[in-house]
Amino acid sequence: MGHRDNGKKRQLMVIKNIKRYWPMYVMAFPGIAYLIINNYIPMGGVVLAFKNYNVRQGIWKSPWAGFGNFQYLFKTEDAFIITRNTVLYNLVFIIIGTALSVFISILLNYFLQRHNAK
Hints:
This protein is mainly α. Helices cover about 75% and strands about 0% of the residues. The protein has helices spanning about 1-20, 20-40, 60, 70-75, 80-115. The longest helix is centred in the C-terminal third of the chain and has 39 residues, at about 80-115. The mean pLDDT is about 90.
């Protein structure tokens, strides 16, 4: 009987905490929804890389290709060019993004210090 009492007390504490901190849950909801929509739902599309996709059958009913799509990709002459372009584009975006962020932060700091000095 004591074990059941602990379970009920725990449930009451959980309910009490939910009622007490409901504003925090409301504030966390948009962030959690954003993560689910933008980070987890697209993972279903990763399955597409391993399928022999047929539009009429859809993603889930199309037959499995295994690594066949990857073998086909890396046997082509353009595989090196595609990989190189992907890596270089990402490096350029990282470098430009970092430089632009630093530039904007220095610019904002300069103007805010100048404004506060007056």
